[in-house]
Amino acid sequence: MAIAQSRCSGPAAGWTRGIGGSRPRIASTLLGLMALLALGAGPAAAVENLNTSLEEICQPLLELNTKLGASAAPGSPAGGLMQTELSLSAAQYGALWSLLKLTPTPGCSRLY
Hints:
With 112 residues, this protein is an all-alpha fold. Helices cover 71% and strands 0% of the residues. The longest helix is centred in the middle third of the chain and has 26 residues, at 43-68. The protein is globular and about 30 Å long. The relative contact order is 0.15.
């Protein structure tokens, strides 16, 4: 976990401190999601925890949409920064974005 946090710490160029400061939380949430799936939590609990965790990822991205009028969608400048900061390939980031957009939570469903 320390590796993910050290790789994601500090605000990215051009982002406000509030959004840049959320990247360690996004990275730790993603690691937590993988641990949850690996532990094999019960189906209902896993789905609820997964949706809650994904909503935590979507909130800073939604803030980017609403406050700055920018998008972290694949192919966008902010999306490129997120992809680099999370050390994901374009295909991985695209899959993550699709998962976020399909998550039935208020923040994730409003991403653009």
